[in-house]
């Protein structure tokens, strides 16, 4: 195994990713940031210099389990103090599994400002995946807002509440196209349709060759659907795990998920094709994101002769649930789940109002971080720094109607956490419900830090603790780190609490998490050695010496 060292300078620069000029966070001048390429077992060292001038930062290595290094998980408020402007912080961790992963900001809502990139971990020499291809490519799909993170944060935490509304555009590998002739941008001098920043991304392919395309998803809000005109995609990997291959025309992807698909460049080679991403699950006004699937030797800037494909209706839930159910682990590569849980935690997802502020809650508790990050509070035994009463393991199942407008007048904001007994098996059931708007329930992509979970099943309506577990897939469930919770439905997950640390589990929609949509799990914290002093320096450790 090797040590791979990176030196990153993180700063704000003016860019026009969708032709509209705004401040974007770059890493060494690039947005998306550089791809981390490694091999299983390698140690990654990232020396990060915060040159944002007026903002803190922290970077999370999404999908990397941080075994033995929970303090380098990069989750501000949970695993470390923020990196102050001007400071340098060194992350050091092992990539212990092959596959496709992501990294992104985990401080405030900076992911929205463009601070993200891909991590690609190859198998050890001599080992092979259960599929083959000639070339390997990665793209990240994203949505894009013209407002700054601070403007959005202020709106979301104001009375009256100011919603961010729909994204202005969708980006494919950091490029999109906003219509500069639309008001209010017209005449404001910020939109430039011919800026080189917003020429569409082109993926060049050699006719006849098979490609592996790794797709990462990091939108702030929207669930997306990707289509490559005229080409089928065979899904082979999800969140670093081999999938029993299945073929799709449209791939639905939720924020925080990664997939690998195989594509054969087997269409008429005399032209180019559209790659398009489209918002699903909302009544969106956002135009589709477009890129060019470029057959060599056609010019990569030559537009395909066709109108980009429209794809299924955005409010059509059935094909999305069908895809969720189709993802099974590849035979022979699956680690089967333990057959029974030691503990079951049911989390009711609701929108609430707390003191007049709009929030999201789990079992009526909306997460707010303490001033001392949990890893530090627990590692240094500063237990007074957060609420020691655990949040509830369930909600009032018998009396709560998930189809009525949420009316949780007793919701509270709290920094309490779930403490799991080390090495036990825990089932987590996500239960969706109606929001505060009539006849409305929205998709939430849930992401767990520090673990992969088995996806035991999806269902509609209210989860029944007695009958629904009988329908679980205990034969070939896929393991993932991010999973959708569909409208008015439930999703059942199983984990083994065997990674000492403190781990966030939250909705990956930037705005929902910011509004409290997450919980925190602790397990085996007593097994950890001394915390590196570099993660300290805030909250109750303000006076601690920083190197
Ligand atoms: Cu990719 Cu806690 O997030
Ligand atoms: Cu959500």
TrEMBL record:
It is an enzyme of class 1 (oxidoreductase). GO terms for molecular function: copper ion binding; L-ascorbate oxidase activity. Residues 10-122, 138-297, 392-524 form the Plastocyanin-like domain. It comes from the Eukaryota. The keyword DNA damage does not apply. Keywords: Copper, Disulfide bond, Glycoprotein, Metal-binding, Oxidoreductase, Repeat, Secreted, Signal. Dimer. Belongs to the multicopper oxidase family. PANTHER family: L-ASCORBATE OXIDASE, MULTI-COPPER OXIDASE. This is L-ascorbate oxidase. It comes from Escallonia rubra. The lineage of its organism: Eukaryota, Viridiplantae, Streptophyta, Embryophyta, Tracheophyta.
